[in-house]
Amino acid sequence: MRTVSKGVEEYQKDKKGALLIITHSTRILESLHVDKTHVLVNGKIVASGDASLVDEINEHGFERFLEA
């Protein structure tokens, strides 16, 4: 994961732009500077926040978003 995260960060610095990362693994996001986080269920955004949303998912799980 760290290798992938490092590659993503280098790409972002080189291109000086934004990236949209869609993943089921919050671990990759832990090594990146994340400005915004969105949770999608069945193609719809059910929650939005900053990087703290990733921590919340890691601590409490993703299941609560399935009920949204």
Question: How would you explain this protein's 3D organization?
Answer:
This protein is α+β, with helices and mostly antiparallel strands and 68 residues long. The chain has one domain (2-66). It contains four helices and two strands. A two-stranded antiparallel ribbon has the order 1-2. A hairpin with a 2-residue loop joins strand 1 and strand 2 (44-49). The protein starts with a helix and ends with a helix. GO terms for molecular function: ATP binding. Keywords: ATP-binding, Nucleotide-binding.
What topology does this entry show?
Elements: H1 2-15, H2 27-30, E1 37-41, E2 44-49, H3 52-60, H4 63-66
Antiparallel strand pairs: 1-2
InterPro entries: FeS-cluster_ATPase_SufC, P-loop_NTPase
Keywords: ATP-binding, Nucleotide-binding
Protein name: Iron-regulated ABC transporter ATPase subunit SufC
Structural class label: alpha+beta
Strand ordering within the main sheet: 1-2
Strand content: 15-25%
Number of helices: 4
Estimate the mean pLDDT confidence. 86
Strand and helix order: HHEEHH
Helical fraction equals 40-55%
Instruction: Tell me the span between the first and last alpha carbons.
Output: 30 Å
Shape: globular
Total discrete domains: 1
What is the C-alpha radius of gyration, as a whole number of Å?
13 Å
The main β sheet shows up as: 2 strands, antiparallel
Spans of 5+ residues with little confidence (pLDDT < 50)?
none
Work out the number of β strands: 2
